[in-house]
Write a structure and sequence with these properties.
Blueprint: H1 2-9, E1 34-35, E2 43-44, E3 50-51, E4 54-57, H2 69-79, E5 83-87, E6 108-109, E7 124-128, H3 130-145, E8 149-156, H4 163-166, H5 203-220, E9 226-232, H6 238-252, E10 261-262, H7 278-287, E11 296-297, H8 307-318, E12 323-327, H9 344-357, E13 366-367, E14 372-374, E15 378-381, E16 386-390, E17 395-399, E18 409-413, E19 419-422, E20 430-434, E21 441-445
Parallel strand pairs: 4-12, 5-8, 8-9, 9-10, 11-12
Antiparallel strand pairs: 1-2, 2-3, 6-7, 13-15, 14-17, 15-16, 16-21, 17-20, 18-19, 18-21
Helix pairs in contact: 3-5, 5-6, 7-8, 8-9
């Protein structure tokens, strides 16, 4: 890690035009994460087994040179979590805005000539920064060793809507030597969906965006634990994002692995649901079921300091057949520094949810509001199992007409997952049960 940081200090003095072949991984793998053939709402791991993704992530895992991603991935593994969303490129070497004002590893070198708006040499969008490539490969390898799956965000479209941040962007006409202009309409931001940064109407910009995507894919193709996301919060041109997703599939056609791409193969966070209320989470996820693809509940920027609300939304998403990824500003794993865990209670609750989900065959289950005949609860079930979440405890009548045999019932306190046995009585077309206490509980019938 220290050698990577030392190299980062000299990164902008090194010139290259393409990804150095020596940095590309050659580890043979059979397949990348794919969609589980028996249930399109879940993933299949590289070995072909069903996979539900549950994660906890922050903004600067990769981009901030002071972030210790090895300790972060160690933490995820020790907690039983398997998923992290990772921004690869924000758009500028340094942003003046919390929480991402740290110095970033950039994909492009800055040799000039000329001075950019931040007072440093201009970017050359045609020269790949080899330190970016080295760090990206090391990050993916570190995550793979710890069974952590990565959602790699190729570029960010959040900062282009802020004039003070767009002023620093590499695709701002003032900041590169390549004549690339992400704002030909002179709007002061890059959000013009017709000719701006995220558009099909700016072929010069797209030429270099494709080159960046190709660099990322060439560097990471041999890693089976990767999903690509074209852009965070692109609300300007769906056509542009889908075209770049198609471009990844095109160039990977001749490569060892083929990966899933957001939003070509599944929706990204804001296109699923971004609310914390259980009823709205349930409605949003079930409303996207016609897409017949994995759905990830990830509220992204709506960080919630209320553990109870996060826990309720998480459990509602999981029993609605979705995956869960929480943006967490407390994951402060800094090089040579230890910072206390500021959300320890919530972290335990996320970890215990992941543990409990591994104990049920979720890939055989289907969520349905009709499973609850009465009571405040959300559930999914198969012929042999059911799992229900009761945000306020109380009693429920569960439809068990499609289940076989006599099930065993177990209640789990959603705050600490302490187990309490329950007796569902003789199995008929319905089963009536009451949570052991107030607040939220999880019921498992097997």
């Amino acid at each position: 890690m220290r050698s990577v940081i030392r190299l980062c200090a000299a990164a902008f003095l090194v010139a290259t035009i393409r990804v150095p072949p020596a940095l590309l991984s050659t580890r043979p793998v059979n397949r990348a994460i794919s969609i589980w053939p028996g249930n399109p709402f879940y993933f299949a791991d590289p070995g072909g087994k069903p996979l539900a993704l549950i994660g906890d992530y922050t903004w600067y895992t990769f981009s901030d040179v002071d972030y210790d991603y090895v300790r972060y991935f160690d933490s995820l593994r020790s907690r039983g979590l398997n998923y992290s969303r990772v921004w690869l490129w924000w758009g500028a070497e340094e942003l003046p805005t919390d929480p991402i004002h740290q110095r970033h590893v950039e994909p492009f070198l800055r040799p000039g000539p000329g001075t950019a708006n931040d007072g440093r040499p201009k970017y050359d969008l045609g020269q790949v920064n080899p330190i970016f490539v080295e760090r990206l490969r090391a990050l993916c390898a570190s995550a793979r060793q710890r069974s952590v799956n990565l959602q790699l965000v190729c570029m960010d479209a959040w900062m282009i809507k802020h004039s003070d941040l767009w002023r620093l962007h590499a695709f701002n006409r003032d900041n590169n030597v390549n004549g690339v202009d992400g704002d030909p309409g002179r709007t002061g931001v890059g959000t013009d969906g017709s000719r701006g940064f995220c558009s099909m109407g700016n072929p010069h910009a797209m030429q270099f965006q494709k080159a960046l995507v190709r660099t990322i894919v060439q560097t990471t193709n041999s890693f089976s634990n990767v999903i690509y996301e074209i852009a965070n919060e692109n609300y300007y041109s769906e056509e542009w994002e889908l075209a770049l997703g198609d471009y990844i599939h095109e160039i990977e056609g001749a490569m060892p692995l083929q990966h899933l791409v957001m939003r070509r193969d599944m929706p990204s966070h804001s296109y699923v649901v971004q609310r914390w209320e259980p009823a709205l989470v349930r409605r949003g996820i079930l409303g996207k079921r016609p897409l017949r693809c994995p759905l990830v509940f990830d509220t992204d920027w709506t960080i919630n300091k209320n553990d109870d609300e996060v826990r309720a939304a998480m459990w509602t998403a999981l029993v609605s057949g979705a995956h869960f990824n929480y943006m967490d500003d407390s994951l402060e794993f800094r090089l040579n520094r230890t910072i206390p865990d500021g959300r320890a209670a919530l972290h335990r609750q996320i970890d215990l949810a992941a543990k409990l989900m591994r104990q049920v065959r979720y890939w055989r289950m289907t969520p349905s509001d009709s499973l609850i005949r009465s009571g405040d609860a959300y559930a999914m079930a198969s012929q042999t199992e059911a799992i229900a979440y009761l945000p306020e405890g109380g009693g429920i009548v569960l439809d068990t007409a499609g289940m076989k045999g006599r099930p065993a019932a177990r209640w789990y306190n959603a705050r600490d997952c302490a187990a309490v046995r329950g007796d569902p009585g003789r199995l008929g077309t319905t089963v009536e049960l009451t949570a052991p206490g107030v607040r939220d509980w999880v019921l498992v019938l097997k």
